[in-house]
């Protein structure tokens, strides 16, 4: 009897292990659905397929850091996309929660949506390596997990992003080209400490500078991707005697440009994000500017991907979004918009994904939890 019980327990353990192993997506051969939109990161990208389920679907967006205009617009665009009639027909409920920079709170929020029976969880992660348990729990529950912007470092979910390191490299190349051949001093206005996007962009920026072989001093300050914070730390750096040959600002670019212009100490080339006010300042002040970044509408591409996965379509595990980079002077009505708010970020349309918005659609939404 004891031997029989032992064998039965072992058999049950094997069955449970098999069930866990089979949970989550199947790895299948590509190509996937809608390849012009869901473009794989590389030729080696794996493809996923979940069992098709009947809609409409319950989808949650679990955001972390919120205290800047990009995050607010990212959420507003996500809501606007979910409200478009053809998308709304696919969605039973779309929930948004932002938790600030608390990693544990973001993990708890994601787990809570899994427990509530949501079909897909979208995450802009506070920490790339902290969500392995969330992905495992979701896969065991057949919940689709997707991450974007600050993507999760786990191969068992869908990651949607642009080349963040490449953006830092582009900024470094621009400032090196604009500052001549000799020694130079650059100001780097960074994002919140520990944020994956900040780390990747800084890595790319410093890599290009090191490879140049030039004598470049880089002064780092933390502007939190916010115009007010960026303006203050830039003004403080200049007041401390800083005369810079170039400035790289990851976000809050208009605040940094304003601080430089208000100081009257120098005019340096600036590589910044895609804020409308930044581009307006570059034009009006005749600055040499590079403006590039990640459009807030990548949240809408992630929703589109979630719906495709829930329908059982084949999708890449890693999806590459295009990066938009423009240079001053910026074309009015195309790259810079005088009638739109200064906080507006360009890059909200992804034509390859048939995703687009009017300014009114975005303005009608907020970045608040719902």
Automatic annotation (TrEMBL):
Alphabetical list of InterPro entries matching this protein: Peripla_BP_I, SBP_2_dom
Principal location listed in the UniProt entry: other
Protein name in the entry: Ribose ABC transporter substrate-binding protein
One Pfam family recorded for the sequence: Peripla_BP_4
Organism for this UniProt entry: Thalassospira profundimaris
A single cellular component GO annotation: cell envelope
Gene3D superfamilies registered for this protein in UniProt: 3.40.50.2300
Similarity comment text for this entry: Belongs to the bacterial solute-binding protein 2 family.
Positions of the Periplasmic binding protein domain: 59-313
């Amino acid at each position: 009897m004891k031997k029989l019980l032992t064998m039965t327990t072992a058999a049950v353990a094997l069955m449970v292990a098999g069930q866990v192993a089979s949970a989550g997506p199947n790895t299948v051969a590509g190509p996937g659905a809608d390849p012009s939109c869901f473009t794989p990161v590389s030729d080696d990208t794996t493809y996923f397929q979940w069992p098709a389920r009947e809609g409409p679907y319950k989808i949650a967006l679990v955001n972390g850091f919120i205290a800047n205009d990009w995050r607010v617009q990212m959420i507003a665009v996500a809501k606007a996309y979910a409200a478009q009639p053809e998308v709304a027909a696919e969605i039973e409920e779309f929930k948004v929660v932002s938790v600030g920079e608390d990693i544990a709170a973001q993990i708890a929020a994601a787990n809570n949506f899994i427990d509530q029976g949501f079909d897909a969880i979208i995450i802009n992660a506070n920490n790339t390596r902290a969500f392995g348990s969330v992905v495992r729990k979701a896969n065991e529950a057949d919940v689709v997990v997707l991450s974007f912007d600050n993507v999760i470092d786990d191969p068992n979910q869908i990651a949607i992003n642009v080349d963040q390191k490449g953006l830092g490299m582009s900024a470094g190349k621009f400032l090196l080209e604009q500052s001549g051949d000799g020694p130079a001093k650059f100001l780097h206005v960074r994002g919140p400490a520990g944020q994956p996007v900040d780390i990747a962009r800084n890595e790319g920026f410093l890599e290009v500078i090191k490879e140049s072989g030039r004598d470049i001093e880089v002064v780092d300050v933390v502007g939190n991707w916010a115009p007010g914070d960026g303006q203050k730390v830039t003004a403080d750096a200049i007041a401390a005697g800083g005369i810079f040959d170039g400035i790289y600002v990851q976000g809050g670019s208009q605040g940094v440009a304003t601080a430089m212009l208000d100081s009257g100490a120098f005019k340096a080339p600036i590589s910044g994000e895609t804020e409308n006010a930044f581009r307006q300042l570059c034009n009006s002040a005749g600055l040499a500017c590079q403006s590039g970044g990640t459009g807030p509408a990548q949240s809408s591409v992630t929703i589109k991907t979630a719906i495709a996965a829930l329908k059982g379509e084949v999708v890449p595990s890693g999806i590459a979004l295009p990066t938009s980079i423009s240079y001053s002077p910026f074309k009015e009505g195309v790259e810079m918009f005088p009638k739109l708010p200064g906080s507006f970020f360009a890059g909200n349309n992804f034509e390859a994904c048939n995703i687009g918005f009017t300014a009114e659609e975005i303005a009608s939404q907020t970045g608040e939890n719902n």
